[in-house]
Write a structure and sequence with these properties.
5-stranded antiparallel beta sheet, single chain, Neuraminidase, mainly beta
């Protein structure tokens, strides 16, 4: 999830990413088949922000926007594409101090919406049904359903949708935070800043805990999911980039081609796998989202999403999301795509990027 002030390669001299023509229906590029102590600080009390429920989106003119409710088949095709990783030059301090605990809460009431039918039976870490791709012979497509406001100053490192709200981790030294956001308005409902010595990275919500990684500080903060009060920390070796969770384990990226599996309670390493595309390692794996039995991974310095079978490490689908840039309400100062959240009740994804002014609500479906 490296970026701007974090590494020289994310400075103003970073490569510019090409913009492609956008459309409501975006074709997916289908490719080759694919320990640590528990938190030490006790919970602290605080006033919980109200549970937010997102309003129904306004579908686009795409014919599938309001009808496609099942996940696509993730079939594979041969490819020889590889993704390189630029060198890193900037260093960062290591510390295990607790973050600042100031929490600002803004109350807001939203109308109740029918969540619609569940689209899977596997229990996700947050306690809601997870999505598993059904059998299909048609290639999947990406349909933009709606576009919502996003804080253009948020250097998004992690994005999760739970109970009608976004949980978001932002990065950059001196600007990192964990926050709860209203999806439809972009309003920050609650926010806790990190000490300036920490660079916030990916996060996941597991039960009543929010676990947030840091880049080179080898510390994961544990927050109360209702109040964002600090509950403690985990320690780990190496860098932290992306984080997601299945019902039985965390999945963590560190900017390499490897995904590491960690215990849900202790954060101990319990396994790992190298991610391969057409037999070649896929470097710069960044923000993650666990969906059904698959991992969706942003690739740093690109607007691509890799869909990975975590038990084998094989990339089974590559999603080209560059056309989303054509739909941004503003493009000055934006960085790469980084932020994948999934709502299993409505079978929709939310995609955004670092310093992007918009969040896109999309559905992955099959053409008719």
């Amino acid at each position: 999830m490296r970026a701007g002030l974090k590494r020289n390669r994310r400075s103003s001299g970073r490569r510019s990413l090409g913009r492609a023509a956008g459309a409501s229906a975006l074709a997916l590029i289908v490719l080759a088949s694919c320990s640590t102590p528990a938190p030490t600080a006790p919970p602290t009390s605080g006033t919980a922000p109200p549970v937010e429920t997102a309003e129904e989106p306004i579908p686009s003119s795409t014919s599938h926007a309001g009808t496609e409710t099942s996940a696509p088949s993730l079939s594979a095709a041969p490819s020889t594409s590889t993704i390189g990783r630029p060198s890193e030059t900037l260093t960062a301090s290591t510390t295990t101090d607790s973050p600042a605990a100031t929490t600002t809460t803004l109350q807001r009431t939203q109308p109740t919406v029918d969540p619609g039918p569940a689209t899977g039976t596997t229990a996700a870490a947050g306690g809601v049904p997870a999505r598993t791709a059904p059998e299909s012979t048609s290639p999947p497509e990406l349909f933009v359903l709606d576009v919502f406001a996003h804080d253009p100053d948020a250097f998004t490192q992690g994005l999760v949708f739970r109970d009608g709200r976004f949980y978001e981790s932002t990065g950059l030294y001196g600007r990192s935070s964990v926050r709860i956001v209203d999806p439809t308005s972009g309003e920050v409902l609650a926010s806790t800043p990190l000490d300036s010595r920490y660079f916030g990275e990916g996060l996941e919500v597991v039960g009543e805990r929010v676990v947030q990684l840091t880049w080179r500080e080898e510390t994961a903060f544990v927050w109360d999911a209702r109040t964002l009060d600090p509950l403690g920390t985990y320690s780990y070796d190496g860098e932290g980039w992306g984080l997601c969770a299945f019902a039985d384990r965390f999945v963590m990226s560190d900017g390499s081609s490897r995904l590491t599996f960690r215990h849900l309670d202790t954060f101990e390493v319990i396994g790992s796998v190298q991610v391969l595309l057409a037999g070649e390692p896929v470097e710069d794996l960044n923000e993650l989202e666990c969906v059904g039995d698959l991992v969706y991974a942003n690739v740093w310095f690109s607007d691509e999403i890799m869909v990975i079978a975590p038990d084998t490490g094989q990339v089974i689908v590559r999603i080209d999301a560059t056309p989303l840039r054509q739909r941004l309400s503003a493009t000055e100062g934006i960085d790469v795509l980084n932020g994948i959240a999934y709502d299993p009740r409505r079978d929709v994804f939310y995609l955004t990027g670092k310093l992007w002014p918009d969040v896109f609500e999309v559905r992955i479906g099959t053409s008719q």
